[in-house]
Amino acid sequence: MTHRIITLLPSATEIIHALGLTKHLVGCSHECDYPKEVQRLPVCTSAKLNTQRSSFQIDTDVQSLLQSALSIYQIETEIIEQLQPTHIITQDQCDVCAVSFSDVKKAVDSLVSSHPEIISLQPNLLQEVWDDIKRVAQTLNVPYQKTLQELDKRIEFITSKTKNDQLNVIALEWIEPLMGAGNWIPELIEMAGGKAVLGSSGQHSPYITWEELVNANPDVIIIMPCGFDLARSHQEAQVLKNHSEWKNLKAVQQNQVYLTDGNAYFNRPGPRLVDSLEILAEIIHPELYTFSYHGKAWEVFS
């Protein structure tokens, strides 16, 4: 049977690509943009949010929808019906990140006549991302060992050189209000030679207060807003300078605040988390690592 795959989140699309199955994709989400060829596919989801609003306004809109028990995303069931998929890959990790498993199951049960198999991803740690890659490959009956071996080899290159003199690093997943970074991000920071602060491995990203940020007073601050590219991160981060305590932070005074493309990296639990690790290594220990992401995936915030 020929696979006809729809991916409803960017990380799933990137997993399919890494497994060599891009040609079997027939549809994807409105946020899927890598590899470039998927941008020509029919779009099967849409957002109920205006993502051009400020960080604060977006957060307010998200909380309002969640408190009303409403989904942030809409599934384009008519398009999915027309595409007649054999498999739909979705997620059950974060209601804010992409359409939920329950919404997809409801749409498939009631409307999609092809009766596709639903594969739901729910990673909180790097190993669970790798397990998802394996599970997707096994479900679709394609090899995965070489893909994972190549990713692990790139990780080993970094961890084998990591220094013991760890810098305290805070990753900010949102700007207003402030959010630390959880899930796999603290793991990646540790692998890159830093010590993650105000975020716990395997736990959802926490809201943090300015008092907590000031008390932590990190050596390095890495800004990686979920869904924002490098230019948008630069635009949104300007509000941080308005806070009276910002200029007193050690990282600010030592010019150790960095902006990243949080949309393409970091917030997509797929193969490019290794790219994210390389970016972190390049930022935290520039004397050890040069991967040429500077200017494309990260820059100094000043």
From TrEMBL:
Coiled coil: none
Domain Fe/B12 periplasmic-binding: 4-288
Protein source organism: Aphanothece hegewaldii CCALA 016
Protein name, entry field: Cobalamin-binding protein
Classification via InterPro entries: ABC_transptr_periplasmic_BD, Vitamin_B12-ABC_binding
Origin superkingdom: Bacteria
Pfam family, one: Peripla_BP_2
